[in-house]
Amino acid sequence: MLVTVVTVGAPRYDGCVDVGAEAEAVGGTGLVEPQERECVCCYVARAVAEHGCDGTLRLARAHRDATAPGAVGLERRLTRIGVTCDCAVEERGWWLRREHWERDLDTDELRPPAPRPGCGWVPSGSSQPCGLWVRPRAWE
Ligand SMILES: [Zn+2]
Ligand SMILES: [Zn+2]
């Protein structure tokens, strides 16, 4: 995994993967693109699996930039609930609904399914998670 140095204010992710024509389509970041109407959680979960987390919200930002450029409060909203980097979206921000988890037959513990269920889709321009995700406390 390549480590990308990110300067605050002028992020550059060119070191992540080859930047080609495909990358240009998402602003030259080299990141996988959100699908049409894919929600931020499904995208970030999928993209973290692909690119890893670099300790920032670059994937959440990539989703925002591609789908809802007007949602400038996204990072603040995430930070407020303890989500300060992309992998925390799925750790602390939202969890897949319990009915989607799988039971590990060896340990008898629940784990996120692989592959994940497809996104439940959100209205285009929305920065909200789709119906697959709940805030952790909603699990209780
Ligand atoms: Zn992280
Ligand atoms: Zn989704």
Describe the fold and architecture:
With 140 residues, this protein is mainly alpha-helical. The chain has one domain. 29% of the residues lie in helices and 6% in strands. It has 5 helices and 4 strands. The protein has helices at 21-24, 40-51, 58-67, 74-80, 86-93; strands at 95-96, 102-103, 110-111, 133-134. The strands form 2 sheets. A two-stranded antiparallel ribbon has the order 1-4. A two-stranded antiparallel sheet has the order 2-3. It is globular, with a radius of gyration of 15 Å. The model is unreliable at 5-25 (pLDDT under 50). The structure holds zinc ion (2 copies). The site of one zinc ion has 6 residues, from helix 5. Residues 39, 41-42, 119-120, 129-130, 132 line the site of one zinc ion.
Please tag this protein with its features:
140 residues, mainly alpha, two-stranded antiparallel ribbon, 5 helices, 4 strands, 29% helix, globular, binds zinc ion
Classify the beta-strand content into a percent band: 5-15%
Mean pLDDT, all residues: 81
Instruction: Summarize the main sheet.
Output: 2 strands, antiparallel
Radius of gyration: 15 Å
Bound molecules: zinc ion
The termini sit apart by 36 Å
Widest sheet: strand ordering: 1-4
Number of domains: 1
In short:
The chain contains five helices and four strands, in the order H-H-H-H-H-E-E-E-E. With 140 residues, the protein is mainly alpha-helical.
Task: Give the SSE map.
Elements: H1 21-24, H2 40-51, H3 58-67, H4 74-80, H5 86-93, E1 95-96, E2 102-103, E3 110-111, E4 133-134
Antiparallel strand pairs: 1-4, 2-3
Helix pairs in contact: 2-3, 2-5
The chain binds zinc ion (2 copies).
